Amino acid sequence: MKPLPIVLAVAVFAISAQAQELLDDLESTLSLKTSDGFFRSDLTGLLDLEGYYVDQRPPGLLYDDESFFNPRLTFFLDTRLGPHLYTFVQARLDRGFDPGQKDFDARLDEYLLRWTPWNDSRLNLQFGKFATVVGSWVQRHDSWQNPLITAPLPYENLTPVSYDYIPASPGYFLARRHVPDQKDSWLPILWGPVYATGWELFGTMGKLDYALDLKNAAISSNPDQWDLNSSLWRYPTVSGRLGFRPVPEWNHGVSFSLGPYLSPEVSTALPAGKGINDYDQFTLGYDVSHAWHQWEWWGEVFLTRFEVPNVGDADLAAYYLEAKYKITAGLFAAARWNQELYGTVGNGLGGQETWGNDMYRIDLALGYRFTRHLQTKLQYSFGHRTGSLQQGEQLLAAQVTLQF
Amino acid sequence: MIGRCVFKAVCCALLLIGSGPGHAQALIEGKVALPGPEPQDLVPTRYAAQPGEIAPPDPPVAVVYLEGQFPEAATNSIRLTNEILQFGMQFRPALLPVRVGTAVAFPNGDDFYHNVFSYSKTKRFDLGRYRKSDRPPIEVFDKPGVVKLYCEIHRHMRGVILVLDTPYFTRTQTNGLYRLPGLPAGKYRLRAWVDERHVYEKQVDLESGQLLHLDFDAK
């Protein structure tokens, strides 16, 4: 596949006046509603054409080689039946949930049924497969709203903790600091938006927001664990967020999440008398955002603890600060400072050792919205880890997004 | 002698006033066929509850305006408010006709943020986030054409500013009735703008003092 001609063809088409009319028409054509407004169904979507270049083996949740092309077509179907019932489906055609993971993949990433008993938003109850309530990045994680191309570090940087591996001793666990990440096994603090399956209760009352969910997988879990499966309620994770908006420009939120992160398949390898439910991932988070005229700021900090068999509590802190500034109508710049700091675990020899490599990363991006349907972004990132092992220190990414 | 002079002067003044543009002004009135009101858009947010309640949008109206070569002395015949309020998560009014060069303010009437923007060829701007208590941003519309308004935060919000190169325009009532007074004599085009797909046009030949009735039916 030759990506550049495709990207240019899409961009030239989307900028043209005819395309604007066509895309505006498409918006109304793909919307079905009854004349009384009782039923309404909207099909919308995003076409993302992304290119990545990394100077070393790609870090975090970027798969494939040092440079690769990653197209993604996403469909969203929002359907409302009266004021009390709502369904949402997100389907994707791409190269895997994370960029470059496969050659081709088609998935239902989200589907949910929501019941809102009152006419206002004080209470909503939903069931299905949908994004986590933890943190605030989820609310702006799609390519149109994210001012950068990659996710913040806590949502994508892999730690040496695995869901499918039980270290025989602290030594084995600590040795993982010195090897490159194993993307299908290691876990981040949150795996992107964490589209796990379960229930959610949420609402807003005045200046307060609340959300509580019960899911089938931990927030760090691999996308393979998110689907509806036989172990749905055997190893549940409970998560919540309480938000406070004192004034329109400020948003504060505190989150928590607690639940087992190990796969049931490794239960036989656990120490005697222990089960999957004895090893939790416990996370506390604080998020804040501020918006003022052309500025938007976001920040999140997470403290997470993995209870690792034969090792003990492996603690980790991560945070990021992000800013976006609209330079003109259309042109914007964004910057994000990310840092991840590892705690220590007993090394089995009477001492304490850091169980991962501390890391910082700066992400810089410039974006332009040509129209209400076409946006492009260019991102440069520089990251560095303590120790001699580096992975993808420099990353250059470009993205063209067509919204319809 | 003095009384005669005063009488002549008054007569001359009356003649001059009588032959002025006020005497020659024509009037067009009629009705524009309008689409039915849109059902209220209760669009739930995907990932979090949305503060505030969505109010019903304004009922549809049309803009009726006269186009052509006008006498130089022509001035704005109708003064409409140059303000678009964001209230109840709707633009109010949802359709605002203005003359080229007009400044429009965009006050936020809600207790939460809006972010008005337009990427229209006629006018491209992004007002950013501002509160109800902030001084409303103002944009000057200096090119004729259609300016589509959106809110970056609330996707359902829609508004239009119709920037016109004519001083003779009005907005219909919600039942479609309109009245366009103070028009100069001559041959012109009368247009009714309902939306971008529904723009009706009729040729008119106005005479001084004429009252013309013209309806625009949906095609």
Give an overview of the whole structure.
The complex is a heterodimer of chains A (404) and B (219). The radius of gyration of chain A is 22 Å and the shape is globular. A 16-stranded antiparallel beta barrel of chain A has the order 2-3-4-5-6-9-10-11-12-13-14-15-16-19-20-21. In chain A, a hairpin with a 3-residue loop joins strand 14 and strand 15 (312-326). Chain A has 404 residues and is mostly beta strands. Helices cover 8% and strands 49% of the residues of chain A. Chain A contains three helices and 21 strands. With 219 residues, chain B is mainly beta. Chain B has one domain (26-41, 50-213): Immunoglobulin-like (Sandwich). Chain B contains two helices and 16 strands. Chain B has helices spanning 2-18, 21-24; strands at residues 26-31, 63-67, 85-87, 90-92, 95-99, 102-105, 116-119, 124-126, 138-141, 145-151, 158-164, 169-171, 177-183, 186-195, 198-206, 211-213. In chain B, the strands form five sheets. Chain B has a five-stranded mixed sheet, with no helix packed on it. Chain B has a four-stranded antiparallel sheet with strand order 12-2-14-15, with no helix packed on it. In chain B, strand 3 (85-87) and strand 4 (90-92) form a beta hairpin. Chain B is elongated and about 60 Å long. The A-B interface holds A 17, 33-38, 40, 42, 76, 78, 80, 83, 86, 88, 114, 116, 119-121, 124, 130-131, 138-139, 202-204, 209, 211, 243, 245, 247-249, 291-296, 326, 328-330, 369-372 and B 36, 38-44, 46-51, 53, 111-113, 117-119, 121, 124-126, 128-132, 150.
Labels describing this entry:
heterodimer, A: 404 residues, mainly beta, Porin, 16-stranded antiparallel beta barrel, two-stranded antiparallel sheet, 3 helices, 8% helix, B: 219 residues, Immunoglobulin-like, five-stranded mixed sheet, four-stranded antiparallel sheet, 2 helices, 16 strands, 38% strand
